[in-house]
Amino acid sequence: MSKRDRVYRTEGIVLRRQNLGEADRLTTVYTLHHGKLRLVAKGVRKIRSRKAGHLEPFTRVALLIARGRELDIITQAETIEDFLVLQGDLERLGYASYLMELIDRFTVEEGEENQAQYRLLLDSFERLSIDDANPAGVILYFELRLLDIVGYRPELFQCVGCGAEIRPENQFFTFLHGGVLCPKCAKGQSQLSSLSLPALKVLRHFQRSNFETASSPQIPLELFTEVDQLMEGYINYLLERQLNVPAFLRRLRHLDQKGREKETL
After folding, report:
1. CATH architecture of the domain with range 3-84
2. Could you state, in order of their start, the residue ranges of all structural domains in the chain?
3. Who wins on pLDDT, 249 or 257?
4. Mean pLDDT of all residues in the chain?
5. pLDDT at 254
6. 247-255: which pairs have CB atoms within 8 A and are 24 or more residues apart?
7. CATH T-level assignment (fold) for domain 134-264
């Protein structure tokens, strides 16, 4: 192996970390050129470590990495963007954590380049950082684009049962077949989620539009809530597990709602 092959550079977003040994950390980074990587940051827990502040979760960082026998080693790290706006707001922090959890769970193979997925995560972080951001729109757009990338694009225009074009009426959604089921095909079937016509329109609008177009209309919160529940159910079905962050976000919304009710008394 040549000297050039022993080290490589890339940029990435730190997803999570865990202590390793007495002074090291195992750091999971989603990178632009190599997909998800688990990397060792040696000595990063020492007081004098220069890398520690650059390897915090949510940080976009430039890395110099040395190849190791089992895990590669971070030799240099420099912050490109720290997204302090996200880290200083509990709600935005929760949404950003959800995006990272989705990226982490849907990326099974490590070391596989997927620049579209990386750009989606980075763009979504930047959208959440805007002062007047609409987190619900950012999350829905991210979910639908990620499902496109990983090959689970939900079918929203034709019935997955009979293939007929979906009519403008309330429908059903099947996680098993990944799409809308017309009322006729839904008869007698179990484990279906109801899908109102307004919610279906929201999903279609976000699926076929760029972010600026998708997020421009003012969509009622109750519609986003219905869509959010459907997307969470579908994603949990695909991953065969419950995600951790959505429960935290629900608790956060509940506390926020209780706080607003107290203010009106």
Report:
1. Beta Barrel (2.40)
2. 3-84, 134-264
3. 249
4. 91
5. 62
6. 248/94, 248/97, 249/94, 249/95, 249/98, 252/90, 252/91, 252/94
7. de novo design (two linked rop proteins) (1.20.1440)
